[in-house]
Amino acid sequence: MNTRTYSDAVADPYEAPPLSFTDREERTIEVRPYEGDEAEFEALVEMYDSFDPSDRAQGIPPGREDRIRDWLDNILDDECLNAIAWHGDEVAGHATLVPDGDAYELAIFVHQEYQRAGIGTRLIKALLGYGRESGVEKVWLTVERWNRAAVGLYKTVGFETSDAESFELEMTIRLNPSDE
Amino acid sequence: MKVLLGIGGSDDSIRALEKTAERAADTGDDLTVAIVENPSVEHSREDIEQKVTTVLDEFNLDAPIQHLEGDPGSALVDKAENEGFDQLVLGGGQTSPMGKIQVGSIAEFVLLNSHVTVTLVR
Asked: How confident is the model at residue B41 (pLDDT cuts 50, 70, 90)?
């Protein structure tokens, strides 16, 4: 039913997590896939519970702890691919791929204390590397068009605009060749 | 209050119907239901009308049901403005697999163009 368009060209093969780097504030950041243990889950809840409401996008993350837990249960499901950027035991950012038919929907969140330090770019590249390695072919996302920083980030890593007709821009990327 | 509910058959528009009917039963709002063509919905107009009738009956409402032709957003705005409605009610959008709220194309048009107060039901 959905007719999103995807490039025929495959995006750059980014490195898959685990990986680590030093951000622009000299913090050591480690990106690891979500493994599903309780400590990781609780650290994510903590990050989203203190997430700046003005950084919400299209209703997520939700604004109350019980809703955050319900939402996380949904996107941390076994079918989903999740990458977390850690600063020690604290979550600096989280990026996720949620299955949607033959494609995946992507979202990324960087906590306000860790923004403008280059973490978003590294984290999204790591998630795309993780997706490519896991055989994901097509990824889409929507972004509020006024959010220039986010739109710029998505373009930098290879997303192309597929629908500019609605409130939100829709963008797509191909990580693996079509198997048809 | 004179309320116009626009419904095209999407899940969120059905939810808007149920909540608006419930509210009208409580408040005595003067409700009219307008069925429009939502190109992204597979249900036929007959199915939608059947659903509307069922919900209205459930709340003992005797609200007129009308079919609007042509572009759904502009047809709703025209009707609301020309027939003295106080409020135009629509479904508040679907959610993506990620949980992002996605406002539909009809609601987008109505929000940007209607001079009548718009309510999106969540």
From this structure: confident
> Which structural domain, as residue segments, surrounds residue B53?
9-71+106-122
Contacts of A125 (CB under 8 A, 6+ apart): A14, A15, A157
**How much is the pLDDT for A180?**
62
**Inside any domain, residue B24:** yes
Count, residues in chain A: 180
Is B66 domain-assigned? yes
Could you tell me the two tokens for B59?
């709340």
Among the partner-chain residues B97, B101, B105, the one whose CB lies closest to the CB of A105 is B97
In a domain, B18, yes or no: yes
ipTM of the complex: 0.87
Q: Which residues contact B78 (CB under 8 A, 6 or more apart)?
A: none
Task: Read off the pLDDT of residues A63-122 as tens digits, 9 standing for 90 and up.
Answer: 999 999 999 999 999 999 999 999 999 999 999 999 999 999 999 999 999 999 999 999
Query: What distance in Å separates residue B42's CA from the closest CA in chain A?
Result: 10
CATH number for A19-174: choose from 3.30.70.270, 3.90.550.10, 3.40.630.30, 3.30.420.40. Answer: 3.40.630.30
Residue from A167, A169, A170, A172 whose CB has the most chain B CBs within 10 Å, to mutate: A167
B102 chain-A contacts, CB cut-off 8 A: 58, 142, 166, 168
> What is the domain partition of chain A in residue ranges?
19-174
This prediction's pTM: 0.89
Give the tokens for residue A87. Answer: 């600063």
Q: Domain total for chain B? A: 1
* Residue B84 forms contact with A (CB below 8 Å): no
Q: What is the pLDDT of residue A1?
A: 45
Using left for φ > 0, alpha for ψ between -120 and 50, and beta otherwise, residue A23 falls in beta
